[in-house]
Amino acid sequence: MRSSLLMSVVTSVITPAIKSKSCCFMSLSHYPPLMTASYRCFRARSSLSCCNSHADDDMSALFQILPCDLRDTLLCDPSQDQLVEVILDLGCLPQAHYIDDSGRRYLRNTEVSMEEIQCVLKEIGQFGGDNRAGIEGTLHRISAIRNRKGEVIGLTCRVGRARGQIDMVWDLLDFGESILFVGRPGVGKTTIVREISRVLSDELHKRVVIVDTSNEIGGDGDIPHPAIGGARRLQVPDPSMQHQVMIEAVENHMPEVIIIDEIGTESEVHACRTIAERGVMLIGTAHGEQLENIIKNPTLSDLIGGVVTVTLSDQEARIRNCSKSVLERKAPSPFPFLIEINERDYWIVHRTERSVDALLRGKKPLVEVRRRTQQLQVVIERWRTKA
User: Fold this and answer.
1) What global pTM score does this model have?
2) For FRET with 262, which of 143, 161, 288, 331 sits at 20 to 30 Å CA-CA?
3) Where do the AAA+ ATPase domain residues begin and end (predicted)?
4) What φ, ψ does residue 350 adopt, rounded to 5°?
5) Coil, helix or strand for 359?
6) Contact yes or no for 14/45 (Cβ under 8 A)
């Protein structure tokens, strides 16, 4: 009874917007639908958690490992909740990078010394094979730059956020379809998949396993950070073993969802396809500005189904008005949805196979544009031709 009543209410809200073809919520009859009532309710909870995210992010733990003068400068900075990373390079001025800041801010007018770098190294965990370390109990990541002798001469101290922009993608999680997030480094992909792991495990009651190569999703240490909720985590001894741990997660732990960050090798791409064919939902990220970059990347192209050259018959070539040799998608994509994160508040959602087929035929794909307004409302423009 309650279900039918809710359905009638949602339909009455959505139908007029669909007829007007304006920015709207999606139709219940169109895939993927959006349940407006639950969406609004969750958006309010997500906004509330964002207001408290500064405490959850444990910024003091990151500031504590920095030189005293830099720590004091950052603690007094009113925009510290926008901080992305602090850069300490030997012989250079220390810098801070902020969200939506076109440049970097210098934190003082004297260069970083080797003694300061060594003091930081004493306060953090051990570096792995990918030159990344962490601070136990937090989500912050420390990456090293080494000289030819293997000595650390530079550090990138990246802030780990406990809360992401889950309201931008909440409606897609109900379908159990795999999602690939694509974006440049630093745009917030890891924060998003971390929040998704919490929502899928705690809100949607899924069995979620995170394959955490650099302890970046679940934080440093053997006890995962509370930000991942009830999701379980498999740590990866070495980055080269990430694909093996992905398969191990499926075979040993019966997950309904696997979370994997920074898919970057052919073995990992093959593991994604294997996992998808076993009926497990995948949430993954890859570096790239947009879908076209994944298509052109020979290592990652299988994430969108792969690309192969085929020879058309004369009749088919005439119908398509093209040459006889064309590029086509060779297989189904293991990720039915691909989301381009251009900016933190501006996303483009692709139905992966449709968009790939359109691009390979020289057409502009129809996409959903999702953006957040200054009033923290998410606006969805459905099936707009991508610019």
Assistant:
1) 0.81
2) 331
3) 175-323
4) -110, 140
5) helix
6) no
pLDDT digits (tens, 9 = 90+) for 110-137: 999 999 999 999 999 889 888 999 998 8
Cβ–Cβ < 8 Å for 165, 192: yes
- In one-letter notation, the amino acid at residue 369 is V
- And the tokens for 361? 């035929």
Q: Cβ contacts of residue 229 below 8 Å, gap of 6+?
A: 197, 198, 199, 201, 202
Is there a contact between 378 and 370 (Cβ–Cβ < 8 Å)? yes
Q: For residue 166, which of 344, 36, 373, 25 has the smallest C-alpha distance? A: 344
**Exposure pattern of 20-59 as b/e (b: 16+ CB <10 Å)?**
eeeebbbebeeebbbbbeebeebbeebeeebeebeebbbb
Which residues make beta-bridge pairs with 208?
A: 257
Sign of the torsion angle spanned by Cα atoms 221, 227, 229, 233: negative
Q: How far is CA 362 from CA 166, 256, 257, 314, in A?
A: 33, 37, 34, 19
Find where tokens 């408290």 sit: 52
